[in-house]
């Protein structure tokens, strides 16, 4: 099954790859300011390259590492793979980067003590993209996150969670009756669409609880009044709530193969402890979303046919920016932008929020500590004008 999985890259995987590459580019120089070496860990590295010649995550990560190493940043990569044949291919794929990209044979959580020790001297980014959902035992992974967190000032996570396969397994295990329209959109897909898993496989409830990090998903799956897509979103939200104990922020982005599909192929889960990470990943996910919608509704067309419900609601953003400032202000522009991005994660890029703040200053719905419209991130904002004394403080 795993060899079939690496035969060719699926089209929707390109969005995952885009987000990974787009994020790592600014992430590496950003965390380098912490004055510690940077370690990128690809926890399920696979073969390195697909059978159709398309690069896998190792060949997306390694060239980015090389780019920043060439500019003097001490960054390196660990690429972990448990399957011996996949590992052989991985080692060959990384030959051109062998000075700083180390292939490792083994299971990533078994390498925990070594990774935790390295985290004492490195900032760490974990990329977790297993080709089977069963590789995501929550308790074992939490041990990795928490030990690295205790050892390092910075740890971030990008994880591919196949929520649809998990819930199909869960519904079958609970003997829940599935509605006829729940699976219709995916009936023409082959098994490779579900990573290397068979969505019709029988999986024990205890195994599913282990993947989810608890049995909270059972109530979601058993609710006959909730549609399958809504169950997926509720399960993802529950999963994110459990990640917050290891990361300060946790969010997810749904990856679909077609706009018309209601069921995502997977959820790309992100965890970070730093507000700057939230902004960087938000911008990456926004750009991936715009690319996805553009290919469907506007690229090569005379008119932009993007549905109204997919267009960002800037009026809502303006109102929320004012409300957030009123509730927590005065706030710096950076703090306000971060709050707004978190509230609308994956919808507005950082530059869009800055532009909206500028428009609110022009219309005097917000006021700056400098009294000016053109401001930087350190300038405070309020819903009422600052006194002369407040401006000088």
CATH fold naming of the largest domain? Rossmann fold
Shape assignment = globular
Radius of gyration from CA coordinates: 22 Å
Instruction: Assign a percent range to the helix content.
Output: 40-55%
Overall strand count: 10
- Low-pLDDT stretches are 176-194
Tally of alpha and pi helices? 15
Q: Name the average pLDDT.
A: 82
Assigned CATH architecture of the largest domain: 3-Layer(aba) Sandwich
Name of the top-level CATH class of the largest domain:
Alpha Beta
Give helix and strand order, one letter per element, not per position. Answer: HHEHEHEHEHEHHHHEEHHEHHEEH
| Helical/strand content category | alpha/beta
The largest sheet is: 7 strands, mixed
Quote the beta fraction.
5-15%
Distance between the termini: 64 Å
In the CATH hierarchy, what is the superfamily of the largest domain? Vaccinia Virus protein VP39
Number of domains: 2
Strand order of the largest sheet: 3-2-1-4-5-7-6
């Amino acid at each position: 099954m795993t060899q079939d999985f690496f035969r060719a890259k699926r089209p929707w995987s390109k969005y995952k790859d885009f987000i990974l590459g787009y994020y790592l580019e600014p992430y590496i120089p950003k965390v380098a300011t912490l004055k510690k070496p940077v370690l990128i860990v690809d926890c399920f590295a696979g073969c390195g390259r697909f059978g159709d010649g398309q690069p896998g995550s190792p060949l997306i990560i390694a060239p980015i590492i090389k780019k920043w190493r060439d500019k003097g940043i001490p960054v390196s990569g660990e690429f972990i793979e448990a399957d011996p044949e996949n590992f052989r291919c991985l080692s060959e794929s990384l030959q051109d980067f062998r000075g700083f990209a180390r292939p490792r044979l083994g299971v990533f959580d078994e390498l925990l003590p070594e990774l935790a020790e390295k985290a004492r001297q490195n900032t760490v980014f974990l990329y977790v993209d297993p080709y089977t959902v069963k590789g995501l035992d929550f308790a074992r992974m939490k041990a990795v996150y928490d030990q690295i967190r205790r050892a390092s000032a910075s740890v971030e996570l990008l994880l591919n969670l196949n929520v649809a396969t998990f819930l199909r397994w869960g519904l079958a295990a609970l003997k829940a009756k599935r509605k006829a329209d729940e699976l219709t959109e995916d009936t023409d897909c082959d098994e490779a669409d579900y990573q290397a898993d068979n969505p019709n496989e029988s999986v024990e409830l205890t195994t599913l609880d282990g993947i989810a990090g608890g049995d909270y998903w059972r109530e979601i799956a058993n609710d006959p009044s909730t549609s399958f897509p809504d169950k997926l979103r509720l399960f993802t939200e529950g999963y994110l709530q459990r990640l917050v104990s290891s990361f300060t922020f946790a969010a997810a982005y749904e990856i679909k193969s077609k706009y018309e599909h209601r069921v995502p192929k997977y959820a790309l889960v992100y965890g970070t402890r730093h507000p700057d990470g939230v902004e960087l990943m938000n911008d990456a996910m926004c750009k991936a979303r715009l690319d996805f919608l553009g290919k469907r509704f506007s690229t090569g067309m005379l008119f932009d046919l993007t549905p109204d419900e997919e267009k960002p609601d800037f009026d809502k953003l303006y109102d929320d920016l004012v409300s957030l400032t009123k509730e927590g202000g005065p706030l710096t522009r950076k703090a306000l932008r971060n709050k707004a991005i978190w509230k609308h994660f994956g919808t507005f890029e950082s530059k869009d929020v800055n532009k909206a703040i500028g428009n609110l200053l022009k219309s005097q719905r917000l006021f700056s500590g400098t009294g000016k419209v053109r401001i930087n991130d350190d300038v405070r904002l309020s819903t009422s004008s600052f006194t002369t004394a407040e401006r000088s403080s």
